[in-house]
């Protein structure tokens, strides 16, 4: 029998339904893989093998009783530790929430359990989803399963969903949840040679997800291929009355409508994304992607997104401002860490708790956010950034009068070594240069593997679509996937 950990979402679900193997056998295989890799990769903060087995046993019992099975029946997944899970520690990779066990379940995770998925554990991430390399976690760095040839330097798995990307790429999970605020699904997917989609803002509920920047945060799936992402997104998405930003729209049958035939479609190539000094391998992969979509029947058109150059500074005003407000709730009073020095007053407790509980990057972003929201600078920075955000959104609206989807690189480089950019926050922030514009506009966007660079590391291509048109994004992604024929996987060294 095929190694069960080599199977993706669709293959596992269909195999369990047909009786080729049991959900318990699948969960056991992945539990073993997680345990074997944990010390080397540090992809999980908490493992929950018993939960995976319990969910699998229920699926096996339901199948034996001829009960209907859900879209994710028998599929064990990793849950990014930003989603509240009832009775299981939820930390957002921070010391300030260490030991916090919610009495409630996030809407997205509950939808996945209702669809038949089981939980292998809570995945590591950049603290409060702030980072591009998974080096800001209070529980240690996640190590990418990829290595450069003849080089043992540990590589970044991308961020903030680095635990998710590493787990899927290393075959520790067939799929995982991610969240994307400025590229945190797409960039790690590109770094590790997997697929990931950020749906339209509001498509997946944010209720029960630890907030970073509320007008940007969006949950999405990360998996081996486009079809698996579509299946998982169908299970995750849907209206939630508990989330005021949730879209009250039916969930389309994206999987059934998947098609790599792009005849009659137009693909926009934004000239502003051709940066000076662009990495040669990234540029080559982009050109190959253009050729593949043309081969799939699409017409290629040149488009302009003139405010692109302002997207990154706009994001790094708006996101920290919202983070400053959201993270004010962590004060040592109601839950999580409390640091109460002898003789301290309330203000001293706030300061001591936050000093001990937040990491340097979180503190940096809170300070930036508090500064741009302060009375003297609110109009100069935050108000101006919101105006530019509107202009960026208008750029996309105008571009989509000429095309159906947009093709661009996902990240400016392949994975870099851990520690390579950690002393230069600006260099780290530049990892989001291609992914942030779609986030500011709330548009669906996906990364799919496009090939390897000169060092044998994965590169990703990004497809951006119109609001609510996840189908168009998935179809273009499938067209690239079929033509790229990406089968590379990290050589097992752990």
Q: Report how far apart the termini are.
A: 23 Å
The CATH H-level superfamily of the domain at 4-261 and 470-481 is Amidase signature (AS) domain
* Strand portion: 5-15%
Describe the main β-sheet briefly: 8 strands, mixed
Overall residue-averaged pLDDT value = 96
The CATH architecture assignment of the domain at 4-261 and 470-481 turns out to be: Alpha-Beta Complex
What is the CATH topology assignment of the domain at 4-261 and 470-481? Amidase signature (AS) enzymes
The coarse overall form would be globular
Helix content range of the residues, please?
25-40%
Low-confidence stretches: none
What is the spatial order of strands in the main beta sheet? 4-6-5-10-11-9-7-8
Look at the helices and sheets and give the structural class.
Answer: alpha/beta
Oligomer: single chain
Q: Provide the CATH top-level class of the domain at 4-261 and 470-481.
A: Alpha Beta
- Strand element count: 11
List the total number of helices. 15
Taken in chain order, the helices and strands follow as: HHEHEHEHEHEEHEHEHHHHEHHEEH
Gyration radius, rounded: 21 Å
Give your account of this protein's structure.
- This protein has 494 residues and is α/β, with parallel strands linked by helices.
- The chain is built from 15 helices and eleven strands.
Topology:
Blueprint: H1 9-18, H2 23-41, E1 44-47, H3 49-64, E2 76-80, H4 107-114, E3 118-123, H5 162-169, E4 175-180, H6 186-192, E5 195-198, E6 218-223, H7 226-236, E7 266-270, H8 280-295, E8 299-303, H9 311-326, H10 346-357, H11 360-373, H12 378-399, E9 405-409, H13 425-429, H14 436-441, E10 445-452, E11 458-465, H15 470-484
Parallel strand pairs: 2-3, 7-8, 7-9
Antiparallel strand pairs: 1-3, 4-6, 5-6, 5-10, 9-11, 10-11
Helix pairs in contact: 2-3, 5-6, 9-11, 9-12
């Amino acid at each position: 029998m095929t190694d069960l950990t080599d199977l993706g979402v669709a293959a596992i679900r269909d195999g369990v339904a047909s009786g080729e193997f049991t959900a318990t056998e699948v969960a056991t295989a992945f539990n073993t893989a997680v345990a074997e890799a944990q010390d080397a990769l540090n992809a999980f903060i908490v493992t929950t093998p018993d939960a995976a087995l319990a969910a699998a046993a229920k699926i096996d019992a339901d199948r034996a009783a001829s009960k209907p099975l859900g879209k994710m029946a028998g599929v064990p997944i990793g849950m990014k530790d930003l989603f509240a899970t009832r009775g299981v520690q939820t930390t957002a990779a921070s010391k300030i929430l260490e030991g916090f066990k919610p009495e409630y379940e996030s809407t997205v995770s509950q939808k996945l359990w209702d669809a038949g998925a089981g939980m292998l554990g809570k995945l590591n991430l950049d603290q409060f989803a702030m980072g591009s390399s998974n080096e800001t976690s209070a529980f240690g760095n996640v190590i990418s399963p990829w290595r450069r040839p003849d080089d043992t330097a540990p590589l970044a798995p991308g961020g903030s969903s680095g635990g998710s990307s590493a787990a899927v790429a290393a075959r520790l999970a067939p799929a995982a949840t991610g969240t994307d605020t400025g590229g945190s699904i797409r960039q790690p997917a590109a770094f590790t040679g997997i697929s990931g989609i950020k749906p339209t803002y509001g498509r997946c509920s944010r209720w029960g997800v630890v907030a970073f920047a509320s007008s940007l945060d969006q949950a999405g799936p990360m998996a081996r291929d486009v079809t698996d992402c579509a299946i998982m997104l169908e299970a995750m998405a849907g209206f939630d009355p508990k989330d005021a930003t949730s879209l009250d729209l039916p969930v389309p049958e994206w999987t059934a409508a998947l098609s790599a035939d792009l005849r009659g479609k137009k693909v926009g190539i934004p000239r502003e994304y051709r940066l000076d000094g662009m990495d040669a391998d990234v540029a080559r992969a982009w050109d190959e992607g253009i050729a593949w979509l043309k081969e799939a029947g699409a017409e290629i058109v040149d488009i302009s997104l003139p405010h692109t150059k302002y997207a990154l500074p706009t994001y790094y005003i708006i996101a920290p401002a919202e983070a400053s407000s959201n993270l004010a709730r962590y004060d040592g009073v109601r839950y999580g860490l409390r640091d109460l020095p002898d003789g301290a007053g309330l203000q001293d407790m706030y300061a001591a708790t936050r000093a001990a509980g937040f990491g340097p990057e979180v503190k940096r972003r809170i300070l930036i956010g508090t500064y741009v929201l302060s009375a003297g600078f609110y109009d100069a920075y935050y108000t101006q950034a919101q105006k530019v955000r509107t202009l960026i959104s208008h750029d996309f609206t105008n571009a989509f009068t000429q095309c159906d989807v947009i093709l661009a690189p996902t990240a400016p480089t392949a994975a870099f070594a851990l520690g390579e950019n950690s002393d230069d926050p600006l260099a780290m922030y530049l990892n989001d240069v291609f992914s942030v514009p779609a986030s500011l506009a709330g548009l669906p966007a996906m990364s799919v593997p496009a090939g390897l660079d000169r060092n044998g590391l994965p590169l990703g291509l990004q497809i951006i679509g119109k609001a609510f048109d996840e189908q168009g994004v998935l179809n273009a992604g499938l067209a690239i996937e079929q033509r790229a024929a990406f089968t590379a996987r990290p050589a097992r060294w752990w």
